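Field: COMPLEX_INPUT
Field: COMPONENT_COUNT = two
Field: RESIDUE_TOTAL = 235
Field: MODE = joint
Values follow.
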Amino acid sequence: MHNDQPTTNTVEEPLDLIRLSLDERIYVKMRNDRELRGRLHAYDQHLNMILGDVEETVTTVEIDEETYEELYKSTKRNIPMLFVRGDGVVLVAPPLRVG
Amino acid sequence: MESQQEPEHLPSGPTEVVNSIRERTIAENSMVVLLQGLQGQVTTVDLKNESTARGRVVNVDAFMNIRLDNVLYRDRRGQLTQLQDLFITGRNVRYVHIPDNVDIMKTIQSQLARIHRVRNFASHGGGRKEFATKTK
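Field: COMPLEX_OUTPUT
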């Protein structure tokens, strides 16, 4: 990151796995049924992240009053550069391949 | 007990550095320094309660508490309110939109340089050193 210690090349702890994804596109699952897909520019130990070219997907479930059917709706929006506060992050992964 | 004083000649206003050593150390070791470098810029902060606040960043502290002014606050229903001054607790922040014209690396580097300048000034002037000097 940006401290004075030299960064190591070995993977020693889970945060190092995120380091491997720097400058790559990643998938971030967040609390409140949100997902982000963007390019990881920076992160810290709290999982605060800077993502570029981000697409945020918010998924909501509507329940039909009569049939009790669950209708899943997702809303997307694009943001050029986003700072994400780490306490909302649930998981970080390479982007999911659409099957 | 902190005996360190902020040097008089450091500019005040959007470029000032926080006075507390503890806050400087916390900020220096996390991405909050980038947000601190956004002082003076107009940004949008998305809050955890699904509302958004767009305004000029006055100050961001190490805990991500943000003060904005000239704010357009949009609540979760979409209702707009104009606020002269808004203080957002760090825990309530979900996202901060970074303006397009911001160079992230330069901003972080200049913030860290500012922190280190204050620290070095204090030790050079005979004040208390924050860390023992390393002997290699």
